[in-house]
Amino acid sequence: MPASLPFSKSFDFASGATAERFKNPFWKIKELVFGAPFRRAVSEVKSFGTRIVSAAVRKREYQYQHAGDDRITSDDPLQKNLIDSLLDHIDDHQVVADAAMNYLSAGMFVRHNICWPSLTNSLGRDTTAQSLTWTLYLLMRHPRAQQKIFSELQATLAHTDHQLSLSFDSVQPTSLPYTAAIFNESLRFYPPVPVELKECTSDTTFPDGTWLPKGSLVIWAPWSMGRSKHIWGDDADEFRPERWLITTCEGETPALITMSSFAFPVFNGGPRSCLGKRMAELLAVYVIASLIWKFKFEEVFDEKPKTGEIPKSRLSQNSLTLPMEAGLPCYVHRRQIR
Question: Between 80 and 247, where is the model more confident?
Answer without folding.
Answer: 247
